[in-house]
């Protein structure tokens, strides 16, 4: 093997299939023909041929000549006849036929000796319906459009998840489910945007690179800007710039974009993911609850059903979307009264009894959140807004307006199928209280909390100009796709992060 990692392998180091394909490419070029022409004079897509001539009866022929192109997904060669299936785009296929009488010996021999599965070819010929009932193009000529040097994965063998996500391009070629996922995701994203636009929300873009990370409790990715010699972070949330826009008078605003969190990776978490955040002046947690329900139902209608099967059980999105208060739900789960005043020592004892691990550094608020995560959230199969969180849960949410709920905030997390799908709160707009909260977060960060927020003076300055009362909403797009497909997060992301190949 070559000692230089970046050097391409020499021919005698290639697998046999790749060596044979490389030889075919070289032979095409040596004969003065093109293995990778700039294009093909295609007159019809495969779908257009299917739509236009799909009415032909078995054995019926036309004199209509077309030029089609696609990837060879099946090939069968006999003495005087060759068959192939071409594929394009979303998986549309069309049979082509090459007969000695129509294309001649030279073209037929070239096809048999040069074409492999995975090649792109262009074929010109008459549209017919074969005697076996297959709509076909009876070729009069063909050309190579792109010679594939690697064999495709075997169609009838199930690809491992790792192979699918690492080589998504090959996965898309051979697996219809992968192509369907791309289209469904695009349709759901479009439905979300259309729903928001119908409500007069404006889409804007905010910086990905930030001097100060904020808007969520998460560990950021760090980077460096050479031009200004500044440390920077990739954004962990969209919240703070969007709220600045609301301060400036953009009363209904949203962004759908990539977020980056330098944390664990599992079936529901990815270091890079897509999130929707929406902010509405004069809204609150209840207007946001109504909005997220509309968005999810719009996505369900695109997916084709409001009855969804999840690993936790069947979900009826047309049923009741219930509200579940945080501490009463926790009390019911542990069999004793627990509230915001319950001391950390008691919560640790409850956790030990329930087999829940708590970090020794956590305070009572974080401990209660972990208990709810382990004991309450998995049982929320039908749409459930867990609300009235302890203040530590959302440093940017406002204190609860109701008497008797001191120490709680106006915030909810939406769970469907036992998985969090979105979050929202009535936004904290008092700059004095917000400064106190962010100062406390800064102390936590200095004490070693990697997820604590930093003090953002520019955000506080914006609030000091006067922010209207507002509601804010966050919806994980990837987890929404997961809800309707049953797939893991790496399947819903077209090109997810993977570990380096050995």
Automatic annotation (TrEMBL):
What's the EC number here?
6.1.1.6
Question: How is the cofactor bound, as the UniProt entry phrases it?
Answer: Binds 3 Mg(2+) ions per subunit.
For this protein, what reaction is catalysed? Answer: tRNA(Lys) + L-lysine + ATP = L-lysyl-tRNA(Lys) + AMP + diphosphate
- Gene Ontology CC annotations of this record: cytosol
Q: Which residues bind Mg(2+) 1?
A: 413, 420
Give the binding site residues for Mg(2+) 2: 420
Q: What is this protein called?
A: Lysine--tRNA ligase
One GO biological process term is: lysyl-tRNA aminoacylation
InterPro entries tied to this protein: Aa-tRNA-synt_II, aa-tRNA-synth_II, aa-tRNA-synth_II/BPL/LPL, Lys-tRNA-ligase_II, Lys-tRNA-ligase_II_N, Lys-tRNA-synth_II_C, NA-bd_OB-fold, NA-bd_OB_tRNA
NCBIfam families assigned: lysS_bact, PRK00484.1
Q: What is its main location?
A: cytoplasm
GO MF term (any one): lysine-tRNA ligase activity
All copies of the Aminoacyl-transfer RNA synthetases class-II family profile domain together span 183-496
Q: Which cofactors are named for this entry?
A: Mg(2+)
Q: Where in the cell is it found?
A: Cytoplasm
List the SUPFAM superfamilies.
Answer: Class II aaRS and biotin synthetases, Nucleic acid-binding proteins
The entry's keywords: Aminoacyl-tRNA synthetase, ATP-binding, Cytoplasm, Ligase, Magnesium, Metal-binding, Nucleotide-binding, Protein biosynthesis
Reading the lineage from the top rank, the first entry is Bacteria
The family note in this entry says: Belongs to the class-II aminoacyl-tRNA synthetase family.
Q: How does it assemble?
A: Homodimer.
